[in-house]
Amino acid sequence: MVWLETKKIIIVLVGAFLNALALNFFLIPANVYASGFTGIAQLVSSILGEFAPFNISTGILLLLLNIPVTILGWMKVGKSFTLYSFISVLLSSFFLEILPVKQLSEDILLNAVFGGVIGAIGVGLTLKWGASTGGMDIIAMVLSRMKDRPVGTYFFTLNSIIIVTAGFVFGWENALYTLVALYVSTRVIDAIHTRHEKLTAMIVTKKPDELKKAIHEKLVRGITIIPAKGAFSGEQREMLVIVITRYEMFDLERTIREVDPQAFTNIIETAGIFGSFRKE
After folding, report:
1. Which helix (H) or strand (E) holds 227?
2. What average pLDDT does the chain have?
3. Confidence class for position 173, pLDDT limits 50, 70, 90
4. Contact yes or no for 32/118 (Cβ under 8 A)
């Protein structure tokens, strides 16, 4: 357990470093913007540097923006997820401050592509290990607990504001290249983790009661149990069906491995849900 938590911290640290590397070496020098709260921090920092007599760095703004979101996540989502997410934000802000802003290429397309890819690798690894990079990820988690509605709309709205603002302030060419960076990062995160908000897990196990209890201790989700029988062995088993958000996949996977390492689990993408998704 200690080694698992240590690995998780290391992954979060690596993800934060890659995110800062993508910003300071590629996106910020080219005025190409990241998505979510990172993009907002980057955009506000650029606007202040351009029009205000003072400037606040992207790293400091990112930390300030995430403080109220972290408090919300702590109260509504859960301590473990929120804690690791804030550690990720804190490390990202630290690396953004200590790494120099340096332009490696004058080609804006190269900056958009490489910045998008490197940043997405950091985000994807962080998500895969049950944390997030804060900001919209925590808000999405809160919304998924409160309302059975897709949160993709909120991501789209926030990123649209970033792109349109960047277009008006710094020119539409930069806004278009921001679209390139967002597309590239989304595809890379898809390959490493998943951007589908809801997933269905079908778990075939010999220990349905123990597994059900362990899952309910970790996740606020209902479970449907279906009798199952092995086609070759003829053994009677149970299949647990549970719908989760992508943020809960790490906790579910770890719980299954702890309780029944021999369980067979199939994770599929869920296009839509009808009925109650939330469990008080």
Report:
1. strand 224-229
2. 81
3. confident
4. no
Q: What is the pLDDT of residues 203-233, one digit of tens each?
A: 999 888 899 888 888 777 788 889 988 888 8
The tens digit of pLDDT for each residue in 41-57 reads 888 888 887 777 888 88
Contact 22, 119 (CB under 8 A): yes
Q: What does each C-alpha distance from 239 to 53, 97, 231 come to in angstroms?
A: 63, 49, 14
Task: Please check the confidence at residue 188 and state whether its pLDDT lies above 60.
Answer: yes
CB 15 within 8 A of CB 123: yes
- For residues 173-180, average pLDDT: 82
For residue range 148-172, list pLDDT tens digits in order.
555 556 666 777 887 888 788 777 8
Mean pLDDT over residues 110-123, rounded? Answer: 88
Instruction: Reply yes or no on domain 198-269 having CATH 3.30.70.120.
Output: yes
Rounded Cα distance between 115 and 138, Å, is: 23
Of 192, 70, 49, 43, nearest in space to 119 by CA: 192
C-alpha to C-alpha distance for 17 and 237, rounded to whole angstroms = 45
Task: Output the DSSP codes for 3-45.
Answer: HHHHHHHHHHHHHHHHHHHHIIIIITTTT---SHHHHHHHHHH
> Rounded to an integer, what distance in angstroms lies between the CA atom of residue 180 and that of residue 174?
10
Residue 98 phi/psi, 5° resolution?
Answer: -90, -25
The Cα 90–Cα 86 span in angstroms is 6
Question: What are the start and end residues of each CATH 3.30.70.120 domain in the chain?
Answer: 198-269
| Alpha-carbon gap, residue 73 to 85, rounded angstroms | 9
DSSP symbol at 102: -
